[in-house]
Amino acid sequence: MCSQDVLDEIEAIEAIYPECLSRLNDGLVELKVPNHEDFRLRVSFPKEYPETDSPHILQVQSSGHDDQYLESLFNDVMHSVYHPGSVCVFDFLTELDGVLGTDAGDGEDDGGNHSHVDAEPVEIDALSGWTMSEPVTDRGSTFIAFAREVHSENDVFHYLQTLKTDRKISRASHNMVAYRIQNDNGTRISDCDDDGETAAGGRMLHLLTIMDVWNVLVVVSRWFGGTHIGPDRFKHINSTTREAVMRAGFVKEDTKHHKGKKKK
């Protein structure tokens, strides 16, 4: 029987990549790699996952490729993203998308078709520079936050536009935004966007203000699962926002210690 962590992870992937996961039986799924659906693999979840063991790749198939080589490659990617105690399949699929996209871009099969070559990196690079939170799933809805450094509103607009070229981001029900910018001349800019999730952007901006972080842009994507979850949605929006900001290094440990000393 799969643990609740594994079941939540499977639900999150189904919400974000609905066409890429098939449940075969308890603890066994078939996956298609997002944006590379001709690559199929079967993955099992051992009882020790995620505490002390990673998911096991049982089979990899793709027409025109060496399956044994792919199995070795996919295992290397799985081992690189797994950290004991944390689920990792979402990170595994995201990393595979980049690995396979890079491999595809190294070929010369397209000859002089430069328009195709130029267009291909857009989706691959959409998440470059962003730090992601762990996905949170609640009653079918999934929340993920993305954070990055910005220094102008032009940065904000550019990075938002690029982020939304990613197919899973563009499919989100809401992409809520908040940012705070402090310029060298002392001027400050802050703004937010609910994107249809009433009051969400304002709450994100309030959290950034409490955390006293600057030159940061945060986007929280929500994939709605069909069940309304009430005020709990704000708890997930705030928790993923905080996690992405912390992971991205905007809050320094020594800064927190100094703040504590000032209170004494």
From TrEMBL:
SUPFAM superfamilies: Ribosomal protein S5 domain 2-like, UBC-like. SMART domains: RWD. It is found in: Cytoplasm. PROSITE patterns: RWD, UPF0029. Residues 8-103 form the RWD domain. GO terms for cellular component: cytoplasm. It comes from the Eukaryota. Belongs to the IMPACT family. This is UPF0029-domain-containing protein. It comes from Cyberlindnera jadinii (strain ATCC 18201 / CBS 1600 / BCRC 20928 / JCM 3617 / NBRC 0987 / NRRL Y-1542).
